[in-house]
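Consider the following assembly input.
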Amino acid sequence: AQTVTQSQPEMSVQEAETVTLSCTYDTSESDYYLFWYKQPPSRQMILVIRQEAYKQQNATENRFSVNFQKAAKSFSLKISDSQLGDAAMYFCASSGTYKYIFGTGTRLKVLA
Amino acid sequence: GAVVSQHPSRVICKSGTSVKIECRSLDFQATTMFWYRQFPKQSLMLMATSNEGSKATYEQGVEKDKFLINHASLTLSTLTVTSAHPEDSSFYICSADPGQYGEKLFFGSGTQLSVL
């Protein structure tokens, strides 16, 4: 079975500060991918970052980076220099056997 | 970038009627499309996986006769909510897989269904 767990329903960060969103997952697949998606109030899903499980190097996309700990099945998202536009729901997801499973989400508030 | 068009964006219907939601990949072929349901302030729940030319694969607990999925071409999948009831009111999102395993999904903009 494939599961994704996000233990932080809500997080707050001061503008320009750094915040880390947590995610743990479980999968029996040997080949899988992990994602962080952002869902702003428009509800359009937007890919933030993607990690290939076979790569040890952590993925980075500008202000967004991940801490991928394969043995611990942990995949956290770090947002640096937070901006007001980063406020949204963030979903961690995993893909395996052509199924994409999403975590319960973390609502990020950015304080001015 | 790849675009997935989902229509309608919002629909209000009477209880007992059927509603069809379309999901189109505009600039790529999608062998596989996924349908998700999202309740307010909750996550995306996978309902079914739609494969072109074959029957959809439904997740446990999803009624096949209630949520009819048709994937007649490589660019179009439809979800029909049959005999809709107020408990079917939800936000439905489709996504398309461009066919390269592990690549990101492309999402439609969603359909808010309200059943009166």
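The CA atoms of residues 40 and 88 of chain A lie 4 Å apart. Ask yourself how this observation constrains the way the partners meet.
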